[in-house]
Amino acid sequence: MTTVSPRPWVSVVIPIKDELENLTPLTEQLVKVLSSHEASRTAPVDILYVDDGSTDGSSSLLDRLAEEHREVRVLHFDRNYGKTSALDAGFRHTSGELVVELDGDLQNDPADILNMIPMAAQYVLVCGWRQNRHDNLLRKFSSRLAFLVRNVVTRDGVHDTGCPLKLFRRAVMERLPLFEGMHRFFPALAMMHGFTVTEVPVRHYPRVHGRSKYGVWNRLFASLYDLVAVRWMQSRVLRYRFKGGERQ
Length: 248
Known about the structure:
The protein is an alpha/beta fold. The protein has helices spanning 20-35, 58-68, 83-92, 113-116, 137-154, 170-173, 186-192, 216-236, and strands at 10-16, 45-51, 72-76, 98-101, 125-130, 166-169, 197-202.
């Protein structure tokens, strides 16, 4: 007889701000993909949407999806607080040993999660790397410029830290300091604490429904401003070991 664990083997955290037309297909894709993994035979899947003050009807649809799919849960903010707050709330309300970060815009393929899972046996943070990006030239330019400047400061070597598809082991989540804007620097913050990080090529699709929440200002200039805080944390982080090699 198969023993079923009450603890999810994977939790997916998805911040949502006005993504009404994307929610049903995204939910169906996630349930299909994650249920196909062998781990789903003995433990449940946890899909947690964090409604970040949506005003387009997404809130009501999320509640209906939670009623229709046992894998789905929803947290509703009382207003819009931003992506970092939504991720922080999601991380705090999940219990899976593996935690996936994913946007709700359908520009990433949930099937790529299955390619990232094997890497979690060796790495604590697995980052998606969009090889063929379907963004306009301005967004590509701002992302490229932000990468060049960020890498000079953080030296994390990650090509696409802005990719919203990431896979965490719980150990790294519990050490990451989250302040406004810090979700842009997950790889650097993980390395700062001595965790291993890698990248996996993932697919990227054009946005079909809804509007992007990021422009040049909050994609480029805000992240450059936050670099000062990240660099300060890197220079002040506590690193020590007990006898026997145990790290704190």
